[in-house]
Structures are given as structure tokens and as C-alpha cells.
Amino acid sequence: MREHLFSWGYKGIRSLIKQSVFYRQRRKQKVHDLEDVVNSGKTLVSLFNNRIFSTFLFQFKTKSSLEVSIYDLTFASPLTFSAYEAHIPLLDVFFKLGVGGGAFKTIRLHPHTGNERPRIQEILIDNEPCLINAMGLPSKGVKRTMKEILSSSLLTYNRPIGLSIGGETVQEYKDLFKIIEASLSSSDFPFYVEINISCPNTKEGQRLSEDVSLLEELLSHIRSYSHRVISVKLSPDQTNASLIEMRDAISKFPKMMINVGNTQFKTCEAVSINKKSLSRGGGGVSGPYIYKRTLEMIKLLMPCSVPIIATGGIDSVEKVSECLDAGASLIGMASALVFDPYSIVRITKALHKQK
Ligand SMILES: Cc1cc2nc3c(=O)[nH]c(=O)nc-3n(C[C@H](O)[C@H](O)[C@H](O)COP(=O)(O)O)c2cc1C
Q: Model-level pTM greater than 0.70?
């Protein structure tokens, strides 16, 4: 009950913020830029995620009957947040709402500002709200990010956290993994690493998804010294043949997961928005529009000896069940959480009812 009320409240406040931000941008004759809306939302959530309000607004109980164990990781439920967010107070709220675990936004070796703004917009496709982004993996850099994560409240939930890594060259991924392993040497927290080889918004972000031998070289190198669970995030833009080739390569290594998948690249013209709406003239579409491809990818990769994380357009218990029935072990969500974080509570409760 409470989650329905707060969900309406959240969506109402978000809509008001959006209208007022867009109104101000129009008055200054600027192109709409959703990032100002997103940033205002984060500031608001941080303000309310305190001792006075957070228990009432965000704390929901989770029962253990939805637990999913993969290798040495135990997720409180199959629902996870996908790597898209680095704002710790917001991730903390997702845990309070009952998410089973999740992945931190892609970390780069060095600080990186990402692409020029505007770089994220809300669009309607087939009458359903979706996002298109060309953020370009902004990051504070691995050293600062690891320090922040390790001293954060996120560790108090003891639910697995994925550290997504991204780079332009194999060497960069190797260096990132090494620094992460070193910073985790005295931690027994259930961290896993997600190798993002599918970002459509950087110059070389998809090089590893285009060349299976580069991915194999990277995994062989990492496995020569680390037993940590590793997920590889594939792209819905890869051909079916390439996805199967990647699955077969990944399956040769122990303690692996496959995440299907990332956003789907579209130009501004293809989604009927002004070409100035995104500084790169296009970006990755996420949300309900890409769900069909997510399900298709799971079915294509099954049977698969490696656990699959289904990501892309998942926003309801029906879609969660369909993906789990198709063979996925975990669910990743990003856009659905931007539009309504209380969907975590609604879906979790509906999954309990199905048990
Ligand atoms: C604003 C935004 C930023 C994202 N940043 C990342 C990222 O840093 N690393 C990554 O692997 N995926 C990133 N993604 C992709 C999501 O993790 C997810 O794979 C994709 O959005 C599809 O899921 P969805 O339809 O539930 O949003 C981003 C998505 C959005 C919308």
C-alpha cells in the first residue's frame, strides 16, 4: 500500500521538477536537457535519505525466500540495479527498497568527464517512456571511486555489489582490475566485477565485443590471479553469431556470468528528436523498447552453463517472470528505477505472492 502512495508521489514530484526545469531551459532558449532533472532528483533523494525520513519513505522488509545464490554470492532477490548510477545515497535507497544486489556505474582508470551535454533525454517510443543517453562513462577514476565505495553505507546491506569497469584498450581493463583487486585485498565483502564491453557512447567502448580474442586474452590474464566472480556485459547491437561466439568463449572460464545487455544505439533522427538533443547526434536507448531484444538474447544463449543477468526494458513482474522462465538467474534494471524506484518494492512483493 505504502509503496503505491510513494510511487505516485515520486512520479508527481519528478514530473513537476521536469516541467519547471524544461520551462527554465526554454526561456533561456536552450535545448531540453534531462540531466538537470536527474541531478535535482538525486539532490532531493539525498535530502530525504536521513534518519528522520528514510525509515518511513524507503525502508521495506525483504524476506529470504527470494534469495539467489550464484557461486559464492547470495543475492537477496533476483532484482538488481544495473550499472548506471554512481550516486551512493541513491544506491543506498535502492537497497532500503529491497533490491537483491546491484552494479555500480562503470568505473574508469582515470577521472573522466564523459561526453558533452546534452547527453540524456527522455523519449516516447510506441507510447512508452524510454531514455536515450550518450553519457560517455563519466567517472571519478578507480582510486577515488573505490575509496568512496569501501567507506560507504552500501556495505552494511551485505548484498553483492558489481564493480563495472570500462576502458578503451585491453591494457586499461587489466590495470583497472588489478587496482580493484588490490583495494579489495583486505575486504571479504561480496563484490563481483562486471566487464562492460558494450558501451555505445565512447570511441572504443565496444572494441572487446567486436573481437572475441581480445576478450579471451583479458579473461585469461585476470583468471591467472583472481577467483572473483566476473560478469561480461554484452550488447543488444551485437549480431546473434557474435553473441553465441562470446558465450562459448566466456563459458570456458570459471565463475563467470553473462549480462544481456546494454543500451541499443540509435541516432536522434531514428527516434524522432532534434539532432541537437544529444551532443553526439545519437545514443543508447533503454527502457521498454529494448525488452523484446533482451528476451530474444536470453533464448538465443540458452542452454548456457553460465548464469545470465537479464537487463533491458524490464519494469514489471510479468517481464521478470518471463526472463526467469526463459533461463535468466538475475534481473538488471536501470530505466525503470529512474522512472520509479518503488517498482523494486512492487515487483518484489509480486514475486513473493507467486512463491
Ligand atoms: C543514464 C544511463 C547511464 C548508464 N550508464 C551505464 C554504465 O556506466 N555502464 C553500463 O554498463 N551501463 C550503463 N547504462 C546501461 C544500463 O546499465 C542498462 O544496461 C540499460 O539501460 C538497459 O536497461 P534498462 O532498459 O533497464 O534501462 C546506462 C544507462 C542509462 C540510462
A: yes
